[in-house]
Write a structure and sequence with these properties.
This protein is an alpha+beta fold. Helix content is 54%, strand content 8%. The protein folds into two domains: 77 residues, Glutaredoxin (3-Layer(aba) Sandwich), CATH 3.40.30.10; 108 residues, Glutathione S-transferase Yfyf (Class Pi), Chain A, domain 2 (Up-down Bundle), CATH 1.20.1050.10. The chain is built from seven helices and four strands. Strands 2-1-3-4 form a four-stranded mixed beta sheet, covered by helices on one side. The protein starts with a strand and ends with a helix. 33% of the residues are buried. Bound molecules: glutathione (GSH). Glutathione (GSH) binds next to loops.
Length: 201
């Protein structure tokens, strides 16, 4: 497998997963070009980061890549069996992590990091923060029962997806004082050697 990666970008999710599974991979590390240059401008086969090349397949979308890796190479690890109730929850969190929970974070980054015009769009910025807070509130309720990971006692690929999301939210100071369970979840994940490795490459 060859992974196109940029430090601290969503490809961290995939490095993390590969490390958790102990799978061999080649990393092509790139500098992230500003998305303000235009859509799909990254120096990868898809124009986006992450992109995975594997067995002649070129795949983008971090969630799809993570699902492919556990299905094709996981040997039953880090994902519940297809067709089970746990699998349904797994799919929900895999997709929630990017499509719902990361969308507001991405918009905030767009205006604060790439466009530098956050002050001129205060209503939109307030909406984005509310979206992020709403998603973190869902997680806060989920972890209120004391579970260490999204699916309960078992760490799964969904935690690689969501762990990146909550870590970025934390780095961007988007967690509120009410998000104690989410903060504890992020701290728990930060101790995992595979995540530490993913953040170091
Ligand atoms: N939903 C996609 C988002 C991919 C994405 O936007 N990646 C960012 C890096 S974190 C990127 O390539 N940004 C630059 C661009 O859009 O040109 C995924 O989860 O992989």
């Amino acid at each position: 497998m060859k992974l196109f990666h940029s430090p601290f970008s969503r490809s961290v999710r995939i490095v993390w997963l590969l490390e958790e599974l102990g799978l061999p991979y080649d990393l092509e590390t790139l500098e992230l070009r500003s998305p303000a240059e235009g859509p799909f401008v990254q120096a990868t086969p898809s124009g986006k980061i992450p992109t995975l090349e594997d067995e002649g397949i070129v795949l983008f979308e971090s969630g799809a890549i993570a699902e492919w890796i556990v299905e094709r190479h996981g040997g039953g690890r880090l994902a519940p069996a297809v067709g089970t109730a746990d699998r349904a929850a797994f799919l929900q969190w895999m997709h929630f992590a990017e499509s719902t929970a990361f969308s507001g974070i991405g918009c905030i980054a767009w205006h604060t990091r790439f466009r530098n015009d956050a002050e001129s769009v205060p209503t939109a910025m307030a909406d984005y923060r509310a979206w992020v807070t709403g998603a973190l509130d869902v997680l806060e309720k989920t972890f209120a029962d004391g579970r260490p990971f999204l699916l309960g006692e078992a760490f799964s690929a969904a935690d690689c997806m969501m762990g990146y999301t909550v870590s970025v939210a934390s780095w961007m100071s988007l967690l509120g004082p009410q998000h104690t369970q989410v903060a504890a979840y992020a701290a728990r994940l930060a101790e995992r050697p595979a995540f530490k490795k993913a953040l170091s490459v």
